[in-house]
């Protein structure tokens, strides 16, 4: 039996400077078999890496960031994050997501209602507070030890 997956494509604005930005498509994903995490997939051409890997024949390339669903939810109401991912509300029903990597920092602006809709759909799959009851500790340990 496969786990439920929520996937939603949204538009984001990559802030390049105070006067320059670029629109890009971001795929938001939530998987019931990884109930604490959300995923943001970005087109590989926006990667901070110098040379992205060549695309597979069947799929366009994508760079994926994985972080806590709770961080995304909390960041829509107040600045949140103390690691590689920071989320904060912004003016006009917007939300800012800052992604930090050794190669640099990416600042993205989203429509907050898009992110709230995605979170709402994820909560239909796994209710808030029920995440730990779905964790498979043996599988997680096996993945960690590789």
Automatic annotation (TrEMBL):
Gene3D superfamilies: Sporulation-specific cell division protein SsgB. Keywords: Cell cycle, Cell division, Septation, Sporulation. The keyword Iron-sulfur does not apply. Transmembrane segments: none annotated. It is found in: Cell septum. GO terms for biological process: division septum assembly; sporulation resulting in formation of a cellular spore. Its main location: other. Coiled coil: none annotated. It comes from the Bacteria. GO terms for cellular component: cell septum. The keyword Transmembrane helix does not apply. Belongs to the SsgA family. This is SsgA family sporulation/cell division regulator. It comes from Kitasatospora sp. CMC57.
